[in-house]
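Two proteins were folded this term; both appear here.
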Amino acid sequence: MKKTFYILLVVLMAGGIFCYTSWNRWFHNPPEADYMTPDFPDRITWTLGEDIHSRTLSWRCGEVPDSAFVDFVRLGTTDTLQVPATGTVVESRSGKSVFYQAHFSGMQEEAVYAYRITTGTQRTPWHTFRVAAANNFSFALFGDIHIPDSLLSSMVAVLDTCPTYAGAAFWAFAGDMIERPTDAYWCAFYDALGDVPLRRPILACTGNHEYLKALVKPLDTRWVHTFVNPANGPEKYRGRTYYVDYAPVRMVVVDTDGLAGPADYVRVRKWLKRILADNPQKWAVVIMHHPVYSAAEGRSNPLMRLAFKGIFARYRVDVVIQGHDHSYMRRNSYMDGRATTPVYMVLNSSPKNYRQKSNPVADCVGYGERFYQYVIVSADSLCVRTYRAADNSLYDGFVIWK
């Protein structure tokens, strides 16, 4: 009896020490400084609609809702449309903003459009953007960003201005676009991207750093109003788990940090099975923050493998894009000794690097470096190229043929 008591006492003490040392990691949120939302439209962001012909434009302006609309015209024509916008007051821990959104449909491939935003008495200059062609397009791809710095600015400049990459149809992010959900980090992210979100749609995935720490973690209230994504996901995950048909690719985004329990996994797994089984597109690409296969030995997400690995293989997902591990990895699937799909990738664009042993079964790894990706899609091939951010040299690449 006495022996059992001492064993229980040691277990309780060890558990208490573990909880004490892990408390900040689990529950501490750095305070958010008070902020005021400017009385002119900022954080103007294009996001993709459910298909290539639709878009949503969002922005924030002031703290009291006002009338708002977008003047919109296809260059080469004289018919200017006035598209109404709706505003929503969004409160965070230390301030509030009115976020607006306007929805557009019927956009034509390879057409150039001009637009300007009016909110109350404030009006932006005219901006232009181009809709890329379907069946033959490209997009840029980033892993975790966390804290923007000069090297991220360099990546943005290369992808935005170099003729080789300037035709990207959209830019995609695999989560942790901000370090923590505070206005200061949102400002840093938008400062680093410059006017890119005004001209190119952003395909965004949530990461754990967009969530506040808690027993049941809430997503930053600003996220779904900043990135207004298609509402075609499971009911609890509208705007966070969704898909976009940019022919010939079905881009599927999964909010893995919002999977709080078994019921969430079942709900999202059921949705994934349906939208992958009924995929009318030739290609399927999945973006999710937490890896099915980690880039590092000793790190593991068994629930991700249990819930999603079989579905990705069964329904012929081509590439699974992931982040979270702050290192680079490519891991092919194999059949009869030959490389096949899905190809699992873990991406890193962050200045934060972890010391860890590489996963010995990976086909390519990269540690202590930062990368960006450029993906080229055509009717019969999907080409992924990974570049070092430091010198823009090619680090890894592969092509899938169909």
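Next, the second protein.
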Amino acid sequence: MRRVVVTGMGAITPIGLNVDEFWKGVKESKVGIGPITQFDASDHKVKIAAEVDGFVAKEYMDAKSAKRMERFSQFAVAAAKEAIEQAGLDMEQEDPYRVGTAIGSGVGSLQATERNIKRLTEKGPGRMEPLVIPMMISNMASGNVSIYFGLKGKSINVVTACATGTHNIGEAFRTIQYGDADVMLAGGTEASVTPIGIGGFAALTALNTTEDVTRASIPFDKDRAGFVLGEGAGVVVLEELEHAKARGAKILAELVGYAATSDAYHITSPAEDGMGAANAMIYAMRDAGISPTDIDYINAHGTSTHHNDLFETRAIKIAMGDAQNDVLISSTKSMVGHLLGAAGGVEFITCVKSIEDGYVHENVGLREVEDEEEFSLNYVKDHGVSKDVNVCMSNSLGFGGHNATLIVKKYTE
């Protein structure tokens, strides 16, 4: 089986507009949550979100291209640009049909939908935007990255709600392993801080209604009361090992395992026994040829909802067995909120940086669990941990019962 390595990374997040800024924020336990500024939320139950601040699309692409993209696509192109530049990928030297994209969005553009519903109801169908459909559909993140950078290989958009980013990286991994591409741009992007996005998740009672940003996204804490909606993008360059070596690329880490399962249980709640997520982890370890004792760190899905954190904890216990108390566990959502389709991409980048830097971040805001017998895992608390990190696991769980797990490790010859 062809080996797959990571050679570039790009991120747009609520705590940094590139990977270095993001990682600096992570190490400082920076919380990127604040009052909603993208619309008037005064009539909404939820008034906070994890917004991307200071993003100017024209700083990453030409003005004409930016104008023809919605915010989620702009994020994807910006993150892809950073990843390509770090990887030193020169498309003039590549066969473009061997370079593909797998960048997903769970929702697409709610902004375009809202604007055009307003036009439709107030002014009639003749006044709708001509490009509303290609601007709003979720595959346009992958499509725009492909078009902007001339990537003519496989271009896909796996949509699995909150597991989208992880599934796209996993399917890109399989694409390279199988020989259908040599390089893939992979990850997720999302920009859903809109009246429908906030109002819809609030109607589902999925969001925390507090206005205290320090107690809003607190995975595994006894006071957790829902997630905080975030936005951003995480995109990585995955590359077949020999291809990367032949062009002298710097190898950041190796992706060694991927698995996906379904709970087949409920449209929003994970399975209570955790078996779906547990089997995703077990199968990913099997795919990687490793055992639970090899895992140093699990970047948990950790949404800060009652059901997710409880059932994911049960799943980790099943998957890790006797090694469950030896592995460090934290959720990046404690700082950036829940990026939906982008979460898996950003959290995968977190795992690679943990390996590179020998650092595992804390669960920011975690004070106390409600049941020490049930929540008995080694959740990183109070401060980050500096240690040698060789193998990381990243979990994502999506509405509809979608579970996905990736395993990344320190690269060795």
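The longest strand covers residues 253-262. The mean pLDDT is 97. These notes refer to the second protein only.
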